[in-house]
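Teaching note: in complex prediction, the entire set of molecules is handled at once rather than each chain in isolation. The prompt given to students was simply: 'Predict the structure of this complex.' The entities are:
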Amino acid sequence: MSTFGTLFKVTTYGESHCKSVGCIVDGVPPNMSLTEEDIQPQLSRRRPGQSKLSTPRNEKDRVYIQSGTEFGKTLGTPIGMLVLNENQRPKDYSEMAKYPRPSHADYTYIEKYGIKASSGGGRASARETIGRVAAGAIAEKFLKQANNVEIVAFVSGVGECQLDRSSQNPEFMELLQNITRETVDAAGPIRCPIPDKAEKMTKIVEDYKAQNDSIGGIVTCVVRNVPIGLGEPAFDKLEAMLAHAMLSIPATKGFEIGSGFAGTAIPGSKHNDPFIMKNGHLGTTTNNSGGIQGGISNGENIYFSVAFKSPATISKPQSTATYDGKDGTLEAKGRHDPNVVPRAVPIVEAMTALALADSYLIQKSRESTFNLVH
Amino acid sequence: MSTFGTLFKVTTYGESHCKSVGCIVDGVPPNMSLTEEDIQPQLSRRRPGQSKLSTPRNEKDRVYIQSGTEFGKTLGTPIGMLVLNENQRPKDYSEMAKYPRPSHADYTYIEKYGIKASSGGGRASARETIGRVAAGAIAEKFLKQANNVEIVAFVSGVGECQLDRSSQNPEFMELLQNITRETVDAAGPIRCPIPDKAEKMTKIVEDYKAQNDSIGGIVTCVVRNVPIGLGEPAFDKLEAMLAHAMLSIPATKGFEIGSGFAGTAIPGSKHNDPFIMKNGHLGTTTNNSGGIQGGISNGENIYFSVAFKSPATISKPQSTATYDGKDGTLEAKGRHDPNVVPRAVPIVEAMTALALADSYLIQKSRESTFNLVH
Amino acid sequence: MSTFGTLFKVTTYGESHCKSVGCIVDGVPPNMSLTEEDIQPQLSRRRPGQSKLSTPRNEKDRVYIQSGTEFGKTLGTPIGMLVLNENQRPKDYSEMAKYPRPSHADYTYIEKYGIKASSGGGRASARETIGRVAAGAIAEKFLKQANNVEIVAFVSGVGECQLDRSSQNPEFMELLQNITRETVDAAGPIRCPIPDKAEKMTKIVEDYKAQNDSIGGIVTCVVRNVPIGLGEPAFDKLEAMLAHAMLSIPATKGFEIGSGFAGTAIPGSKHNDPFIMKNGHLGTTTNNSGGIQGGISNGENIYFSVAFKSPATISKPQSTATYDGKDGTLEAKGRHDPNVVPRAVPIVEAMTALALADSYLIQKSRESTFNLVH
Amino acid sequence: MSTFGTLFKVTTYGESHCKSVGCIVDGVPPNMSLTEEDIQPQLSRRRPGQSKLSTPRNEKDRVYIQSGTEFGKTLGTPIGMLVLNENQRPKDYSEMAKYPRPSHADYTYIEKYGIKASSGGGRASARETIGRVAAGAIAEKFLKQANNVEIVAFVSGVGECQLDRSSQNPEFMELLQNITRETVDAAGPIRCPIPDKAEKMTKIVEDYKAQNDSIGGIVTCVVRNVPIGLGEPAFDKLEAMLAHAMLSIPATKGFEIGSGFAGTAIPGSKHNDPFIMKNGHLGTTTNNSGGIQGGISNGENIYFSVAFKSPATISKPQSTATYDGKDGTLEAKGRHDPNVVPRAVPIVEAMTALALADSYLIQKSRESTFNLVH
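The expected output is the structure of the full assembly:
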């Protein structure tokens, strides 16, 4: 339900119009340095109102740690965190109250719970992801300290403008090897690190915004320095945990890892990643697998892409039925994100970190037994 | 690890070269008629050796219910099931023992566990899926009785030959509305229901087989008559559970639901599914959402596609390193599936049924409280 | 770890000296009326400083709902709650810092986590139970509305003074049938409803307090109107969930249900509870079973007792070793509870409610299938 | 439901009258030597028909490993195990079919599931514990290899005849330090290691048997060489996991650890266990705590006792109602255990091992991070 993970476990609470949103992160290793300063940067990257490409609701989104640290160190106990909601009562949404927004959660929420939240979609709110991003920042810090794990997501597609994400495109593979959050953010608010593509993508978003419409996009994420051995065979393969994590982000419609859908047309003789000795371990010369084989990380870069649909709330008039089933026209008031992928970047990074930190702790437990049994 | 689900819960055991493979299915509703005859058909559809398109290992794969039923009815207690392994000791694999097969689980398995299973990939074995298919058949029977839920998967792509899977292609939407398992199987062993496409796909597989190579493909699955309200907001959105389920199947590289990756280029004004009154409930006129909005089923058809890479084990010689890191050439002995997607069809159906049955029982619990509280 | 429950699920955070303590309650049925006024009374009953029998730290312990309700109704989404800590930095404890308190969590905490929390025992703090009591109040309200379930705990023993808790003592069985929270609290701060026993118990506590010592006691809890059918056979028998819940409360040393330890000496012919028709259902004429048979509630009163040891922190000098292993004498400064059982009463009630609400939702899911399958 | 544990996880299946009973044990460390010979001894100790004190159904209860081992070593993959049922159809029970047996699970089972199993209590069958004992034997072997953990249970009470189990009785503490399974079994079928007590207990059982009646008893269990640091604060305290494990065993009515219920009358100044340096770690001079403080193991012996009621199925005539609510007299046919505690000994040991192995793996994961973070 609202909990993710087995040993590194996050539970979130909150929706758009309540007092605060937040989370409890359980299983954080003790004795790790941690303050709000480690968490705020990703929350600020997630925040709306960062540029004219996103909604102007200027929430400050400042995080407050409630428990689990002392003198700047984690205690090993659960870390409670919260971010205040500033807009606790809906205004812009009120006129739309007769209509369930098409392709939004308004209708399914009311059918599932038998009650209508004033925010419409209830927990299917972008604000729910604040708790995830806060928790993910802790997971990420742990992975960085533990194995120098680097997680970088970026926008690889907006509308028709897409990078060539082929696992057989050497330039893309090189991009994955070198990209950093700094280069992603330096490229401007669209968070695509290829300048001419970034420019085109920005133009696309602006055009749809001008039409009171919206457009979707793709976020790609790479993880470097993942230790070999993460992921559990059968149901909890590492790619299955990542797919679960990604499709739990609002507005996602797809996930592909390594060669992905395009890879289905590459014959085995080209798709197989040959082994070669690298730094005392076997590595592979190509990486169509996306860093995972048989559900278990192989030490190569893990990379995957996530499809985000165009945002459902648009100001453009839409013919659709009211809750009562009467035909009508919905014109959503207020200002809405014409595109969510730049803001989705830190959310993808957070969910990646959460899935990996959990897998890491589970595998560490197993490895700890290697010298104990015979 | 080896358990999937919260209320409808399956736990599997077994790998290629042990005595049996099987599962325990916990949480099956009591008083449902159930015998081996309900389970065997899907196991037979999963079995290798059904045609020249798949590996000739002719395992009989007969299932034996051990517990949880009496006089042909479920007791509500866990259902133990097993299928004997006939080939308990590897032969064909022995010469390959020096090499970890590229893009197979051999290497990651040994790194994860610190021990080499004679089957190489250990649990990353196609035989592990037997327990899933057996459990899925029970889940499916329950969903059918409870809400007339219909789950049909089929091959929508092999290599370069793919159906137009666009959510905006009316023919594809109609196919999803009408397809049955009978029409899927009637189309021949490739399990693609469009005859000319099926013929091309078959040819592609045969060509790669002739070259001792392999090729990947895509399986699409549609679920009809899903009740409104399944799926939990936040981490356990219905699409997240389905993505988890699908990416846990061996050899999968991608998942997309509804409009999927292509949908990212459709603007909101076209992508949004307008509401309309249908049979006393709101329904939608289009279905780019794939039957899920805000993580919750909306009563429309759920459909999604799963990418399967080309099988890793090929007889064609491959330059790759030995476990010791020495360069060499691996020529896999034995006969291997040149393509897995037709056999993946019942596995996709099974995992779909398991994810849905669990979501269904969780939502039924919630609904049962609607008249209790005030 | 810090999460309890499957469908009705609480996760807590916080320790003695952090900003706040609190919890997230997931799975609360939607549309139930709920405000802070439903939760505060049990928190106030749990609060220290209610009488001269307990520690004078006068914390106000006011609860703030953060999410999951709107206009006084639950939304079905997670309910975040917090209570501020007023004493965020330890003072009284500072001089004791050289010594792990005997029979307290100071030493095991530091060994488990490799870090010393300034509060000593970290999460093994009585303040951690605030989140449980807040969550339990919600569970209790749900059970009351759903089935008129009544949960009443009381003090049945302090030191040598104990009620005759035998399942074959008709007076005790009658007490269980009639006792209410009002009669428990009316009996004075010791929360034993038998006046002369209450007086003796009070005297015992005062005597130990005067000696700077402490004493233990027993809390008995009865639950009336439990529906038949709660509890899962095998590992999650209802008594197993209750035992888990009770032994998770700080300072507990034992749990017994129905006839308990004394019942081991009653032969089957007297211990068995004969069936008789009651209000259209089978009931039993005696209740040695404590309302549960085969792990499943049978509709009779559930009752059990919980043993609480004497509090570990006492001002009386104790010969014990420092963290460094040097012999010395610890004299705990500050004022400490000489006895915890009166304050444990609402905690026992809360954990009981949490275990039952979860079992109830799980069974409701099963029952919802009875008319669906055939 | 039928699964216990987080990292070391067992799932069981089976009841009295199905083909087999068994389990899947997931999370067993790889590379540990394991064959049926490691498992059979405890199953044989659990088996009925070992002496005239127990039921004469002479089941052979031979265990067959299905998966997860190769060449006598664990693979790290799930271990499937099964034991065939020989008596698949009930006979003796048939005449009793009109009556739910008092204090047995017959009635609650039918109310919970809405179907009547021919065995009456369904999963509330002693045979369900076979899977637990098999799994426990693996857990125990792991703990023995990992930390030389020793788990020994024994009968400490039958009817009115009980050992003085006080935590302040030096003889009892010494018994806990020295007792072995060999000395337990050497004492005769009653499994009480004090000869004169064993004789009295045997006499008590024989007397009740002669009267077609039954009697209860107490099993005490000690665990030596438990590493410091096991158990999670808050809900999953080590004593809470043990209490859960013990109360999940059929026929149990109570659990107490360390000083237990009697300890509630010992003042803090005597109950607190003073620290002293022992072998480079702090230890305690007394052990009223039972080896756990604040929910975390402290390295001292863990010991606890479990109350078992008198068996519900007796041949002595009982006045009770039929399923239809008509008054009548039930005379159970067949031969039934007049007392279960000797056979419960290996079950208590198994559940102890399962709870500890899981806690151990969880703590090992945490400890593995100590040198990784800063």
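Point out the following to students. The mean pLDDT of chain B is 93. Residues 24 and 80 of chain B are 4 Å apart (CA to CA).
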